[in-house]
């Protein structure tokens, strides 16, 4: 056991740190060691419990109902609102789309209308469930364009089963005009989902603290469902989200039952059948530990960190090459660079200084950006963060903007992602620098560079379809069995 524990620590040494406030993507850190300990202990205690059958493990049902009740109170849900615990935001979104589709069995070619800033999980749901995804460009403020969304719905209102909004959108951290969009959807008898996976557990406390938060909860008439992640700003262990519906009738199509086989009658409330009780118990334990007072305190901390970062971008001379893309409504910050440097190099330079910030590709004429998911644990480190960011920007300016070899760009442009061969995939991987010489590209030997700016720049010149094809090929090369 000692040897295995040591090996696990050795493996984990190459991972991003999940605590300490320096990883501003993928993880959400309260900075409270005692809260983390409570969550981990609960995960371990219930890791073997199976959420497949709530009558066999009633403890899980009790915890799920407690969490849904807490969320209903937080999100202004009316009497009769219901909810389900899921494995994460993507599953919550998938179920929102699936239940909207299945609530309209008479619609043979269902569609949903979403701003083009809606999370990629909606693309996944469209692909899985055969729902046409109609993407509508957002306005100059990066929020959903109500008139354009309305026009898109009215192109085929009889086939539209869902209108999508975000609170906030992931890429830019702003809240869509939910009031107007929900009213539009309701007037046409269409469901309106609010993706609040990021904001659901932090924006209500922000409003209590007096911050200006656009309305988006169930207090808005016409909102029929909301997704909210517990493993984000509820600071719970990974693997916990909630999908809430305004009524039990609206949730019913989400459930799946199958009795037409010789085994047990399958009955599922989520995409999963067997599921560990660990993440649910971890979330329940953390929410019980923090409560309203704890979340209000953590919300105050995270928004103070956001405000200080935003103020630093505006006032510190060393950060002049950076600009705020849009003033954030929530805890997500997007920054673009001027022509003296590039976002991808800034991200590399931050990594070299012990900070992980997330690169975002260009889209619809908007440049690449540096993305921050700020946590409460970052607050004590804001001055250090801003100093590191200024150093990173200076280094990026000194290096100059990263460029893509014209021959590589031409090679990418000449390929059709729909008809790529294995040889084409290998050529793309080699051109990207993601495949090493050892063993040759065809054997799958990977050489992961420590600095990703050139790779990201190459991905950025590719079309979205080509980028997807390249990354699918890369994932296929990464996912190779370790044989004894």
From TrEMBL:
- Keyword field contains rRNA-binding: no
* SUPFAM superfamilies cross-referenced by the UniProt entry: PLP-dependent transferases
Per its Swiss-Prot or TrEMBL entry, what cofactor is needed?
Answer: pyridoxal 5'-phosphate
One MF term in the entry's GO annotations: pyridoxal phosphate binding
Looking up Gene3D superfamilies in the UniProt record yields: Aspartate Aminotransferase, domain 1 (3.90.1150.10), Type I PLP-dependent aspartate aminotransferase-like (Major domain) (3.40.640.10)
Name the keywords, alphabetized.
Answer: Aminotransferase, Lyase, Pyridoxal phosphate, Transferase
Locate the N6-(pyridoxal phosphate)lysine modifications and list their residues. 232
GO annotation, biological process: carboxylic acid metabolic process
Similarity comment text for this entry: Belongs to the group II decarboxylase family. Sphingosine-1-phosphate lyase subfamily.
- Please report the name of this protein according to its UniProt entry: Aspartate aminotransferase family protein
């Amino acid at each position: 056991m000692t040897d295995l524990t040591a090996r696990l620590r050795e493996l984990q040494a190459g991972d991003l740190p999940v605590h300490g406030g320096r990883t501003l993507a993928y993880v959400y850190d309260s900075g409270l060691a005692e809260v983390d300990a409570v969550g981990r202990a609960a995960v371990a205690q219930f890791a073997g419990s199976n959420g497949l059958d709530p009558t066999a493990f009633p403890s899980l049902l009790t915890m799920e109902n407690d969490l849904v009740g807490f969320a209903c109170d937080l999100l202004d849900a009316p009497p009769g609102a219901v909810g389900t615990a899921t494995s994460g935001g993507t599953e919550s979104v998938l179920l929102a789309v699936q239940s909207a589709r299945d609530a309209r069995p008479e619609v043979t070619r269902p569609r949903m209308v979403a701003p083009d800033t809606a999370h990629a999980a909606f693309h996944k749901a469209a692909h899985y469930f055969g729902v046409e995804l109609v993407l509508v460009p957002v306005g100059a403020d990066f929020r959903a364009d109500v008139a354009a969304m309305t026009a898109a719905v009215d192109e085929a209102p009889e086939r539209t089963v869902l209108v999508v909004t975000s609170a906030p959108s992931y890429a830019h951290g702003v809240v869509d005009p939910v009031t107007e969009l929900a009213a539009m959807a309701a007037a046409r008898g269409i469901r309106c989902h609010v993706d609040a996976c990021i904001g659901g557990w932090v924006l209500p406390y922000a409003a209590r603290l007096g911050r200006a938060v656009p309305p988006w909860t169930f207090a808005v008439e016409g909102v029929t469902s909301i997704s909210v992640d517990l493993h984000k700003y509820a600071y719970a262990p990974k693997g916990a989200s909630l999908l809430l519906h305004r009524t039990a009738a609206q949730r019913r199509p989400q459930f799946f039952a199958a009795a037409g086989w010789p085994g047990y009658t399958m009955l599922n409330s989520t995409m999963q059948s067997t599921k560990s009780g660990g993440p649910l118990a971890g979330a329940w334990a953390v929410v019980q530990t923090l409560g309203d007072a704890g979340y209000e305190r953590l919300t105050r901390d995270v928004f103070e960190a956001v405000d200080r970062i935003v103020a630093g971008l505006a006032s510190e001379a060393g950060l002049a090459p950076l600009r705020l893309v849009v003033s954030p409504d929530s805890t997500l910050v997007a920054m673009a660079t001027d022509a003296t440097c590039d976002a991808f190099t800034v991200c590399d330079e931050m990594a070299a200084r012990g900070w992980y910030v997330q690169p975002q590709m260009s889209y619809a004429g908007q440049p690449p950006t540096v993305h921050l998911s700020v946590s409460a644990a970052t607050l004590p480190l804001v001055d250090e963060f801003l100093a590191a960011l200024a150093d990173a920007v200076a280094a990026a300016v000194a290096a100059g903007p990263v460029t893509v070899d014209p021959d590589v760009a031409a090679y990418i442009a000449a390929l059709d992602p729909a008809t790529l061969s294995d040889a084409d995939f290998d050529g793309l991987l080699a051109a990207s620098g993601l495949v090493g010489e050892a063993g040759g590209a065809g054997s799958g030997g990977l050489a992961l560079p420590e600095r990703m700016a050139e790779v990201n720049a190459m991905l950025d010149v590719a079309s979205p379809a080509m980028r997807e094809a390249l990354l699918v090929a890369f994932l296929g090369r990464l996912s190779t069995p370790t044989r004894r």
